[in-house]
From TrEMBL:
<dbReference type="InterPro" id="IPR036010">
    <property type="entry name" value="2Fe-2S_ferredoxin-like_sf"/>
</dbReference>
<dbReference type="InterPro" id="IPR001041">
    <property type="entry name" value="2Fe-2S_ferredoxin-type"/>
</dbReference>
<dbReference type="Pfam" id="PF00111">
    <property type="entry name" value="Fer2"/>
</dbReference>
<protein>
    <submittedName>
        <fullName>2Fe-2S iron-sulfur cluster-binding protein</fullName>
    </submittedName>
</protein>
<dbReference type="InterPro" id="IPR012675">
    <property type="entry name" value="Beta-grasp_dom_sf"/>
</dbReference>
<feature type="domain" description="2Fe-2S ferredoxin-type">
    <location>
        <begin position="2"/>
        <end position="95"/>
    </location>
</feature>
Length: 102
């Protein structure tokens, strides 16, 4: 498998996933369900997280859904952020659903 590692802060949980997996899906493999009304389809803008490692340029959807200040701080929509390299992300407790049915 051509894998990449996702490290989620603050707990330091790590998962290896195939290159090309979205951050949204990789977090789910750790049992972390990021808040989203659209189910990770880039339509609601609620699944934003802050990249601790150097983020790639924002997508057009990131630019439509997030303020420039947030983009400058490394905030991206987790459903649109495709993992191409090892990545560290901060997902605050307020951006997490308690379970996959919430």
């Amino acid at each position: 498998m051509d894998g990449v590692r996702l490290t989620v802060e603050p707990e330091g949980a790590v998962v290896e996933v195939p290159r090309g997996t979205t951050l949204f899906e990789a977090a789910r493999k750790l049992g972390i369900y990021i808040t989203s009304d659209c189910g990770g389809h880039g339509e609601c803008g609620k699944c934003f997280v802050r990249l601790r490692s150097q983020p790639r340029a924002p997508t057009d959807i990131d630019c439509r859904m997030l303020s420039q200040d947030r983009l400058d701080m490394g905030t991206r929509l987790s459903c649109r952020y495709v993992l191409e390299a090892d990545t560290v992300v901060y997902i605050p407790p307020g951006k997490r659903r308690q379970n996959r049915f919430a």
